Each structure stands twice: as C-alpha cells, then as structure tokens.
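Re: [help] complex structure
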Amino acid sequence: MKPVLEILEQRISDTLAKVSGLPNCPAVVRMATDPKFGDYQVNGVMAAAKQLKTNPRQFAEKLVAELKLDDICQAPEIAGPGFINLRLTPEFLANALMNIHRDANLGIEKTQAPQTVVVDYSGPNIAKQMHVGHLRSTIIGDCICRMLESLGHNVIRQNHIGDWGTQFGMLVQYLYQKTAAATNSSDPAAIEKALQNIHIADLEDFYQQAKKLDDEDEAFRSAARQRVVELHTGQNPLTLTLWRQIVNESRKHYLPIYQALHITLKAEDERGESFYADKLESVVKQLQDGSMAVESDGAVCVFPEGFTNKEGAPLPFIIQKSDGAFLYATTDLAAMRFRLKDLHANRIIYVTDARQALHFKMLFAVATMAGWADDSVKLEHVTFGTMLGTDGKPFKTRTGGTVKLAELLDEAIQRARDVVEQKNPELPEEKKAQIAAAVGIGAVKYSDYSNNRDSDYIFSFDKMLAMDGNTAPYMQYAYARIKSIERKAEGKDVNVQAELSSIAQIALTDPAEIDLAKHLIRYGQSIQNAAIECRPNYLTNYLYELSGAFSRFYNACPVLQTEGPIRAARLLLCDLTARTIRHGMSQLLGIDVPEQM
RNA sequence: GUCCCCGUAGCGCAAUGGAUAGCGCGUUGGCCUCCGAAGCCAAAGGUUACAGGUUCGACUCCUGUCGGGGACGCCA
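Output below.
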C-alpha cells in the first residue's frame, strides 16, 4: 500500500505543475503540525507563488480549484499565508484501515528499486569480552538491517570482527606457553587438549599478561613476533590452531549475547580482518600501480584531495607502515573493494562511533580515487555519539573496569524482574522470567534507539531501566492490555478471530478511534523515514505516538461493553494496533512483546 | 591551527525549512463499583548558547563568536 503522503505529494505536485507552469515545484506535503490544521498540509504553495510573483492565497485557491482529491480528502482548506490543509475522509480512512487489516505486511510498501546494501556493524574484538562500548553499533546496525529488509532491500550483514593483527602473535605465544606449562609438554595434541579448558574470561586476563610480557621480556617478544609471521604464512599448524581456538572461544562468548539482544548477526556473517589478510598486498599494489599511493617518510600513503593536517600540509591515508606492516586503513580498503566487486553492493553502511568520521571520509575518498566506487554507489558512515560514564567521561577501553555487556544485561533483567514481582506476583515463575528478559533487555535497547544517535550517550542503569514515558515497557504494556482484552473476550463468548474476519466495512465515530486509525495507516511511511536517515529514533517516536493514541482510545472507548459493528470496529483497531506494535518492536527493533507482563 | 559532533523547560531528551517548539522525569491537582493505574486528563515551567545572514517562513540552512566533546603520520 502506497503511503498516503506519497499519493498526495504525487497528485498535488502534478496539479501544481499544471497550474503554475513551473517545471520544478514540489507540493511539499507534510504531516499537519497541529490537529486543528487537519491531517496533512501542503507547504509548497508559498514557494510557487513567490516564483510566480503572485499572491499565495489567491494562487492556493486556483490550485485547490483544480485539485481532485475527493476520493481521499474532504474539501481542502486554505489557511494562514497559503497553506492548504487536508483532512482524510472517514470513508478513505476506513478503507485504508481495511486494506491494512487484510494485509499480512501491515501496509508496508516494498521498494520498486531494491538495492544490495552491505551493513558493517558490531565488530567486536576477539579475545575480549563485549562491553558497553559495543552496544550502540550492534543494536543500531541491526535495526538498520531489519528496516531495510522490511522495505524489500537485499541486506548483507558484515561482522568485521577484530581477529587479526600483531596482538594475536602475543596472545598465541602466551597461550602456547600457558598450555605447554599446564600439560608439561610441547606435544601439539596435548596442547590442543589443554585448550579446551580456556575460556573468554581467561583470554582477557591473558591479554593483559601477554602485553606485560611483551613489554618486559625480550625472548617473549621475539617469539610473539615469530607467531605473527607464522599466522601470515600459515607455516606452523599449531599457531593457526591456537589462533582458531581463540576466535572460537570468543565466538562462544558473543553469539549468546547477540541471542539475548535479538541481534540478527550469525556466525556466517563474520568477515573479520583475517579474511582480508591475504588481499592487503594487492590493495597497496593496485594503488601504487595507479600512482595514487606514494612513499612518504618510509610509509606508503595516499593523499586524497581536500584533507590537510595541523600544518596545512596534505593529510596522508597510510596504507603501509615503514616497517612493511599493514594497518586498519588497508583492511578497510580491502573490505571496501570486496564489498563492491564481489558482493556487488549499491550501498555500504558503516555503523561506528563518530570519532572515526575522518577515517571514513578519507576511506571513501580513496575508494573513489581508485575507481572502485562511483556515483551509483552510496557510501555512508552512520555515526553515533560516544558512550560516557555518569561522570561525563568516556569509558576506558584497554584496561579493566569497563562494564561487561553480559553483566549489564543480567542486571537489567534482574531489575525488571523486581518490577514484575511487585506488579504481578501471581504469575508463574517461568512467565516472570520471560517478562523480565523482555522488559529488561527491551529497556536497554529501546533507550538507545529512542535517542538521536548523534548525541553522546550517558550510560546509567537508572536511566536505561526507567520504565515510564517513551520506553519499551510503555509499548509492551499497551500490547499486553490488548491481549488481555482478547482473553477477556473469549471468556465472554466473543470469538475475536471470527468477528474480525467477518468485518466487511467499518465506521469510525469516536475521536479517539479516528485518531488511532490515522496513526495506524502511517506505519509504512514511518519505517521509510527512519530507514532513509538510518535513524531508529524516528521509528520509536512513531511507536510511542501509536501507543499513546491507543492508550487514549483504551480509556475513552470500551470494547467489550459494546456490541455489533461498534465492537467489531474496536476489536479491529485493537488487533491492528497489536500487530503494528508487535511488528515494530519485535521485527524491527528486536524487542520482545510478551502477552502478559 | 584545520575539521567533525553537540548546546532546546530544573533534569533527561524529541522535533523530514512551515502556522502557537513537543515528550518524559520532577512539581501541583484530578481519574480505578468500569476491558490491566507500567495507564489517562489537566496546570505550571522556553529570548531553541550568542550575533549576524539567506528565505514568504529558521531549532533546522550559511557566516562568525562563546561553551562542551572528539579527530587530525605510521593504534583500531
């Protein structure tokens, strides 16, 4: 179903072009800013009148005389300096509602031009536990994927995990020493067996200790360096086994967290740094052959136009260090080339924090210089603000003391559990546990989604888990109340499904019914808006407004105390609201909506 | 020094160039013999940091200033 806004924009723009004779003059139809201005407003008249040097109100009258909208709207009204206010007819609204009612897809319009969109998000570091700093990329990226898919795009998820680099030489060597010492043997089979007992928490500890040894112990450092070489050449199977074990162990840590958060990333979406390790040389060579990369202070650099450093000199994008090693810039270029040439991406979305903005700007510039990306592909860096502590300072990354994601989620669930216990002590234990998980994790995700992603994010349990206002529990509560009505209906011998499927036409009379209906028919539009800008908070705003409209309806319009067509219409509104909330929360945000809470 | 983000009610935050800038918390006052009060209704609270500019119209776009954060040659 095409969004009403789009239909109006199209039709009015056509008429506007005809009446004005102006080639490029959009109608600019928007949601009305105030209910008293109707449902939609046309803002383009003033601009057109300006170009024609005519009085906007008079021009609006001319336009209105030519408009044919009576199948959608009541007679248009001209207001203010030259706005045209549009009000949907009850018939149109009722029909639109019936169409959505019959549509399993809730009226979400699939795109006419599906794209292949690569979304790069989450990217945890191997051998480290996920901490709060990973949360935003992971959940924002996931929502973007889900929204784009719901609109019919082909989304390719890429989890660019940090599974490669010199620190793995260190880690492998340390792990080797540790297991060799534990087994009192350097026999590969024995070491491999000892590895079974190594867990992510140990690995993290190992990392600290390995780093210390690397700083202090000459012999260790050279052994670690040898491991790096072996990783690259693959000549020592034991080194690769140790490395693989580290990655596997890490995966065992983060996949359950994805599962708890309802993140759609799968193991097969992993395309980490190691995947590109053997492609880095050719990236550098290609850029050198094209005379784009040049030697500078011993390093290989690209100097894209328009970037300068503190001294005003050209800013290098370093792709190979003076010691011959490659950097993350090189890996990102290799990934970019792979995504464009092998995955055939039309659009690539990188979901990382805003501090990397310059890096991505330069990356995009270099990819364009190299001729990999042209105007037909869209490269986007979807940024988000920094995770801050309540003291307003960023979380530390390399040391301990950061909040582990797993622990955060546990606490969120526990806090939600306390509320459930207080509100609904009579529920069975199993239900309480389900609800606590849905509410606790939902609250954490939702509080992030509902913020403008550009803002810095102050981490606070109390704020994340507050359950008033624009929060996940508000939507979950609205949903649970609808489900409760449905259960009550069965107790009163009302067959909800039969009644719903027998409805051929509905009439809406109460203002709260009409308002709710108007929200319901805007769902697809709201997803589009959120997806274009990659802004989940647009979607949460919509869901919050929808739930608000439902709560007012719920207060004003009893369902089961009525009967006949009025009850049927209200049941339909309830059912559609429930389906929309469930779809938005569960399908697009990955937040569970329990039947009871 | 250059560049990026932020600055909106006491606090936390919204607002696709449109009309009288919204919501939550907090404060004050209403609403459960009525489908779930994790709810609804109402009141109070604003020079959208500041100064210019573009525009018929600016929280939104442009320039500058101030304040906060961040990035800027071999980390990721």
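Residues 472-588 of chain A form a domain with the Isoleucyl-tRNA Synthetase; Domain 1 fold (CATH 1.10.730.10).
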